[in-house]
Amino acid sequence: MFTLNIYKENLLTEFIGQVIKYYTKLDSTNTKAWELISKKAENGTIVITDNQLKGRGRQSNKWISIPGKSLTFSIILYPNAQPSKINFYSLFAGLAVTDCFIEHNIQAQLKWPNDILINGKKVGGILCESKISRGVIKSMVIGIGLNVNVKTAELPETLREHATSLMIESGKQYQLELLLANILNHLEHRIKSKETNSQILDWEKRCVHLNQKVTFHTGNEIVNGVFKDLSSTGQAIITINNKEVKFDSGEIIY
Question: pTM surpassing 0.85?
Answer without folding.
Answer: yes
